[in-house]
Amino acid sequence: MLRVYLDQNKWIDLARAATGHKQGERFAGALAAARAAVASGTASFPLDIYRHLETAKRANDRSRTDVADLIHELSRQHALARPHALLPAEIDRALQGIFGFPKNPRSVDAFGLGIGHITGGDVTLPPFNPSELPNSGVGLAASDLAKVESTFKDLVERELLRVGPNPLKAAGFDPSNSELAKRYVEHENTIAASIREKNLTGEMLELAVRASDLGDIQPAVTEALERIDMTWAGFLEALGPSGVVSFVDDLPTRYVTNLMRSAKLRQNQQKWEPNDFNDILALPVAVVYCDVVVTEKQWAQRFRQGKVEQRFNTTVLNDTADLVEVLASAASQLTE
Fold first, then answer.
1. Model confidence at 277, in pLDDT bands (50, 70, 90)?
2. Long-range pairs of 239-244 with CB within 8 A, sequence gap ≥ 24
3. Which band of pLDDT confidence, cut at 50, 70 and 90, is reported for residue 166?
4. N or C: which end of the chain has fewer CB within 10 A?
5. How many CB atoms lie within 10 A of CB 54?
């Protein structure tokens, strides 16, 4: 099964095609191909927490529902884990490659089902209660009851995608709150200012980017080191500067994260924006674990320049219409 990740604007492309919007005409073929691929089991379109958050920001009920319903239709609740849930396993594998420990690295499934997998259990669905059915479900066969429960869970997952900003604000959560994104921009701008002040370029800039990232993930690395009876100081001493850079690059999602960060930091004319925050969190997981990623042109170009397609065997597209050819190729391979 081909795992296909769509950035938010690419979901919007397909939603416009699904609703007959004029701007969606050129994506009608991609939508038909996607629907056929899902129906045949050729492809899966997993969603992550950032699709929930981006969709929930849309204040227009009809526009938001159009996008949410298409995401629900094509994803079929297939879900992608958050980056911090995958990082410990990546760290363990990198440490094992260097030191031979841990003997049994932790493992995490990147893919699963529903909001429970997306949030690592932080959000769970309300329990299905057969007693609330007409006549308390008495007389229903077990197989029929299971179908009702499956339908109930499916509808709840759909409604979670449909929820708009006002109900979420009333519940104490504001999806448009960009405080975290603003802090992230400030953090990156501080690093950018330091790089400019020191006139760092080339390999020195790359070293600075990875050093700052190692600082960001230090708690997760320290926790993993404790599991193999190694201290942070001992880790740094054992690897040295070049070894530390190699270690960070051996963490797949951090490699892509730093590729994105360094590309942005090299271009002073392109300022960090709050919207970059979700991209930096979402796209590395998608690029590493999915087979196809469809994203905006600037990131697609940077992934190609960084040769992530070759490293992770991932096809990166920036035009939603190109899905037709990719999905057709996957279907033909399945029938061979």
1. confident
2. 239/98, 241/207, 243/98, 244/210, 244/211, 244/214
3. confident
4. C
5. 20
Q: How far apart (Å, rounded) are the C-alpha atoms in residues 220 and 82?
A: 15
How far apart are the C-alpha atoms of 321 and 188, rounded to whole Å? 33
Domain ranges for the chain, please list them: 2-80+113-174+325-335, 83-108+193-310
Buried b / exposed e over 110-149, threshold 16 CB at 10 Å, is: bebebbbbbbeeeeeeeebeeeeeeeeeeebeeeeeeeee
Mean residue pLDDT of the chain comes to: 90
Q: How far is CA 230 from CA 31, 95, 192, 221, 224, in A?
A: 51, 11, 32, 11, 9
Q: For residue 28, what are the contacts with CB-CB under 8 A and spacing of at least 6?
A: 17
Q: Report helix angle 179-197 to 275-289, nearest 10.
A: 90
User: Quick check: helix, strand or coil at residue 320?
Assistant: helix
Alpha-carbon torsion (240, 241, 245, 248), positive or negative? positive
pTM over 0.85: yes
Identify the bridge partners of residue 293 per DSSP, sorted by sequence position.
5, 316
Tell me the mean pLDDT in the region 64-88: 95
Residues in the chain: 336
Q: How confident is the model at residue 78 (pLDDT cuts 50, 70, 90)?
A: very high
Asked if omega into 46 is within 30° of 0 (cis), the reply is: no
Runs of H (alpha helix) within the chain: 8-18, 28-40, 49-56, 61-75, 83-99, 114-118, 142-162, 165-170, 179-197, 202-216, 218-226, 232-249, 252-265, 275-289, 297-305, 308-312, 323-335
Tokens at 217, concatenated: 């993930």
What is the rounded CA–CA span in Å between residue 154 and residue 211?
44
